[in-house]
Amino acid sequence: MSYEPAWLALREGADAAARASDLLDPLRDALPPGEPLVIWDLGCGTGSLGRWLSGRLRGPQHWILHDHDPRLLDRARDNVYVTADGLPATIETRKGDIASLRASDLVGASLVTASALLDVLTAAEVEAIAAAAACPALLTLSVVGRVRLSPPNPLDAEIAAAFDAHQRRGGLLGPDAVTAATAAFGRRGAQVRTRPSPWRLGPAQAALTAEWLRGWVAAATEHRPGLGRAAEGYLRRRLAECAAGGLTVEIHHVDLLALPGGSV
């Protein structure tokens, strides 16, 4: 699955505000002290996770930005990451699919990261990540199938259920991804910690809310075409509420930190 750069730019601020910062201390404790860090960012998009995380970790850093979309890698290549020590990090990009990831690819990795990735993977792809990563893994912003809109609307639950079913199409994990990843890393002896990382969108995030609504309803109706006109009217009303500053949305995600047994 590929995303448009405009969508990734629109959501970057909400992603940064949502990420579970309390996972950073145990992550820092698990990283090799005094050694340069080699950080793999899987499904890197335009590199927004690195823009957030690089300045929260100390020491020299080399980032390997991995994605299957060459358009996004072209943008990611232009990033400038600065560490918590004020040092410039180095960056390289690699094109590839998660399904083809092997432990040999990650030899020498200090950390594996990803953002908004797990829920668009299959169980086999999550297993591939867990099997390949012999180092800590910080996997952020996975949807878990809980959305709350205020004021409520009678169609909220029906749209949400259809969206979740769409997320699970073709064997994708969708809202089951965190559970699957927790089990996959746990089977390999890792200690797994999870924390909530919800988007909380109000009038200040109206542009993001409106774009999210369009995508949310479109996915729901793609899965359940019978929603048809009801969904069209629902979207029209919700967009009007959003434009008037009268809509708030809470979209639940979970961040996951997996630490190898020896790092606990």
SSE layout:
Blueprint: H1 5-18, H2 24-30, E1 37-42, H3 48-53, E2 61-67, H4 70-76, E3 90-95, E4 111-115, H5 123-132, E5 137-150, H6 156-167, H7 177-187, E6 191-196, E7 199-201, H8 206-223, H9 228-243, E8 248-259
Parallel strand pairs: 1-2, 1-4, 2-3, 4-5
Antiparallel strand pairs: 5-8, 6-8, 7-8
Helix pairs in contact: 5-7, 6-8, 8-9
Would you write up a description of this structure?
The chain is built from nine helices and eight strands. The two termini are 34 Å apart. The protein has helices spanning 5-18, 24-30, 48-53, 70-76, 123-132, 156-167, 177-187, 206-223, 228-243; strands at 37-42, 61-67, 90-95, 111-115, 137-150, 191-196, 199-201, 248-259. It is 38% helix and 22% strand. Strand 2 (61-67), helix 4 and strand 3 form a beta-alpha-beta unit. The protein has one domain (5-263): Rossmann fold, CATH 3.40.50. The protein is globular. The model has no long low-confidence stretch (mean pLDDT 95). With 264 residues, the protein is an alpha/beta fold. The longest helix has 18 residues, at 206-223. Strands 1, 2, 3, 4, 5, 6, 7 and 8 form an eight-stranded mixed β-sheet that branches.
